């Protein structure tokens, strides 16, 4: 089959879904690889580098490829180019994109949504949500450091003693844990909070301090929510905000990553907390795309408050590290293609009895197959 990577059309998106290295792996599955002219340029991969890896560079990937791979979900103009029997593999967010799903159905194409890959051990190699969240968590700390006028680590120098920075990470999922690892490795005193008490051990094993609340019940029954957070009770939220109010004047950097699947981001860092922070402090809100965890976040912007606190609301952290994120995302894609090509013979076998493929498939041969049935094996 011809597997082709599209050039991203979303403004500012620098990632690409196939690298010369991943193409070499895809070719080992018996496929032919194509790339749209200039698709890898912003991620540091030239057309010549693709050619050297045996990839054909073409102008119209939708016309040329049997399977189109890309990063961002398709725009309407891209869906209009899909044809019957063609497969698109990309992020898609089918729950939020019902109309787009209908449009793809009408084209008779198949969509494999990378955001729907189930988070089970067998599918970890295809878990693009995690690979991108890991990068976002790392980059959030780097971005904070870039806007912070002091060191992370404490130092005793001839010119004077410098205290370490204090960093609070709110939400310890994949992005939060990556942020904790980066922050502790830079030498900051790092605190972290999550509504899921089961992450306390993980946080502490990474050298950060778990922020405990004065509250009796544990919040989330992780088993009931598949390991994700559920909305907090008003009493719990009050206790959480009270704790954050205490911490605000002390923290130099706050990185928020708290999300609840299918809901807007909970507001956890309120205006008065921002006002209580010292001038020069930095907030990086990784939840900005879903409204933000900080009350003052402006999505896609960096603002500085009258009190001198910088609030970063960028929503494109993985794209800001496009070489790294393209490398990891393209690996996620090629593992998906590997599962779709069990015979390694260049023939796609879209096995709807396979738990991972079934769950990720949002449309198949002109039918909408979202939402998927529950996993057979958890
Ligand atoms: P996410 O992006 O949905 O949420 C980020 C974090 O925010 C979560 O840890 C959540 O508990 C936390 N949060 C929600 N509300 C909060 C609040 N009010 N205050 C503080 N924190 C709050 O999470 P994610 O990174 O996608 O990971 C979620 C779960 O998925 C975790 O249990 C993780 O271990 C699991 N996971 C499993 C796999 C796998 O098995 N392959 C892969 C990735 C993640």
TrEMBL record:
This is NAD(P) transhydrogenase subunit alpha. It catalyses: NAD(+) + NADPH + H(+)(in) = NADH + NADP(+) + H(+)(out). GO terms for cellular component: plasma membrane. Its EC number is 7.1.1.1. Signal peptide: none annotated. Keywords: Cell inner membrane, Cell membrane, Membrane, NAD, NADP, Nucleotide-binding, Oxidoreductase, Translocase, Transmembrane, Transmembrane helix. The keyword tRNA processing does not apply.
